[in-house]
Write a structure and sequence with these properties.
The complex is a heterodimer of chains A (383) and B (366). In chain A, 69% of the residues lie in helices and 3% in strands. Chain A is built from 17 helices and two strands. A two-stranded antiparallel sheet of chain A has the order 1-2. In chain A, helix 5 packs antiparallel against helix 6. The longest helix of chain A has 28 residues. The radius of gyration of chain A is 24 Å and the shape is globular. Chain A starts with a strand and ends with a helix. Chain B is of the alpha/beta class and 366 residues long. Chain B folds into two domains: 132 residues, Rossmann fold; 173 residues, 3-Layer(aba) Sandwich (Rossmann fold). Classes of the chains: A mainly alpha (383), B alpha/beta (366). At the A-B interface, helix 3, helix 6, helix 10 and helix 12 of A face strand 2, helix 3 and helix 4 of B.
Amino acid sequence: MFKLESRGHDSKLLAYASPLFAGVLTLICGSILFVLLGKPPLETLYTFFILPISDLYGLSELGVKAAPILLCAIGLAVCYRANVWNIGAEGQLLMGGLVGSWAALSLLDAQGMWVLPSVLIAGMLGGIFWAVIPAYLKTHFNTNEILSTIMLNYISLNILLFAVHGPLKDPHGYNFPESALFSAAQELPILFDGTRLHLGAGLALLAVVVVWVFLSKTFVGFQMQVLGKDARSAHFAGFKDKKLVWLAFIICGALAGLAGVSEVTGPIGQLVPNISPGYGFSAIIVAFLGRLHPIGILFASLLMALMYLGGEMAQINLGLPLAMTGLFQGMLLFFLLACDIFIGYRVVINKRKPTRHIEPAVLSNPSGASTSNLAPPVSLENK
Amino acid sequence: MLRSSLKKLCSSLVFVSLIASVSANVAVANEAKKPLKVGFVYVGPTGDAGWTYAHDNGRKYMEEKLGNKVTTTFVESVAEGADSERVIKQLARSGHGLIFTTSFGYMNPTLKVAKRFPNVKFEHSTGYKRAKNVGTYFDRAYEGRYLAGVTAGLMTKSNILGYVASFAIPEVIRGINAFTLGALSVNPDVKVKVVWVSTWYDPGKERSAAETMILQGADVLTQHTDSPGVINAAEAKGVYAIGYNSDMSVYGPNAHLTAIVHNWGPLYTAKAQAVIDGTWKSENVWDGLAENALDLSPFNPVIPQAIQDQINAVKAAIKSGSLHPFAGPIREQSGAIKIAAGKVIPVGDLMGMNWYVKGVDGKLPH
């Protein structure tokens, strides 16, 4: 009855309207969910979206939560624009946190302005190291980077666990898997007194601007996007595609590594087994939610962080079970991503019977059928 | 004669009226006070049937005992990284007077928040750092482990016991050693195999670790993880298992011999009452079987009565103090004497245990 039809071009209006549309759908379905749970819908929505950021402290916590997600998502967007399917931001983040912590613990007694930058650079190098492994595998052996980066996530988590249970363990910590607390010289400075908002959030904002300029104003950024849109054209234009792949991985590794080292030298203050509750994975959703644009990603990461904070708030204030807050978060993400389909497609109601049905006989014909017969109806309509 | 009894009467009357007025004052003060808000931070879901489930039972017990004197809030599955500090702080900011943080990874976040909220009392489970308004608590789970070891040592046919362990921290190693010593005390031929799963809660992983050990001949299993996965595995393969954290018999009616059950309720009630009374102080509570901080769940009838009696006798001995699970002689894996005969392990060694006793198979990770 209904079917999706390509618009042929993206609708400008819907590009802006689709998030609003998704928001309205979420509010309606969310309210139904909360009523079914016996919770007052308006108060619950207020607890989710307004209460967490109703004061300066709440806003600062939003920044603390969003910073690592934002850094990872910006890095991933660079990769995805270049058609490099890096799923390994989580592993790169963990490696950044680990190498940064190692540097911090080696410099535990050092004082001076140079200590913190060294620790941060060490963390970024850790992230880069973990990102160039799949870059090498992809450019030399044509290894699928989706698989290699997923695997490397697990490896890096286990290296982190080894380190925190072994060589980096606090020697005075009764064998508990935690490093010693970092010294003041190694901790990221706090931006506002009385909050946990640290310099890492500022660095994340800087990364947004730098990557935006890089992608839209530099020739290398342009080359990268051409590579993403059409690898053959990039090749014919003489762009060095292997170098571009390396660069995309390096940028993402550096940013994810910075996210990791900012967590350990920021809100955590030591190396622990759980430095990330999956920021690198959330960042994949955030990158697409922000449509791979740095400013979009900034808003998407703030929204993602707000949902975490709102979920905690709903548990504390309303006794909403964790599973239900997770369900609600999933609902919002689903609507946001699903509504984006209407930017490129419109719904049409089929009045006449579809004339070009794919005949079962054609489908089952092993030798003859041309591939265009197998393409979905959408592309047929276009031709 | 009469005078003195009059005097007595008078003084007792004064005394009684004094008490009455004091208690009336207290009652008035209590009525005027709002109920104490008590917050709980959990590392897992309340339905994990293990660690968090036991803490949540403690919370419910406290609510029942103290009635309208308290209201409680809990936040479940709080990650042990940067998030936990925000959750703990949010509880402190929203007027909670007493906050229980129930996992080791919350230690430093709890201390950080406590510094900013000097009027809020914090209780951290399993840690070792305290502050003016931060106390610590745990139970002597190793006493229960020793009893579990005795049970396993008497029930095994293959003399191979299996132990699914989470992380090589002192608490877990202490449990493995106590279990092994308990088993050896009744059956000198047993070996304990350990599989480390590097997680607190992953039912699938816990179960497959258990199945591996069953293939290697283990016929009594136990675990230091938070799900009943090991019990499920034992039930499916027809061997025995001993639960931990809570009574897990519903997950394996045939396999489940007994379980070591944490009993947090009385402690939580006492701590909340102390805050209400203004007598709370920062201390390390480490209660055992004698204080009823933990116990064994009811025995499975497949355990012969004679064995049940034997286990109960060991339990009575630990309760009375005549038996200490870590009394010498204790041998390290290499066979060297670690604790000499006639001595009991020093508390420091107990708290920071990082070696296996003789009878445990395999090497400690890292």
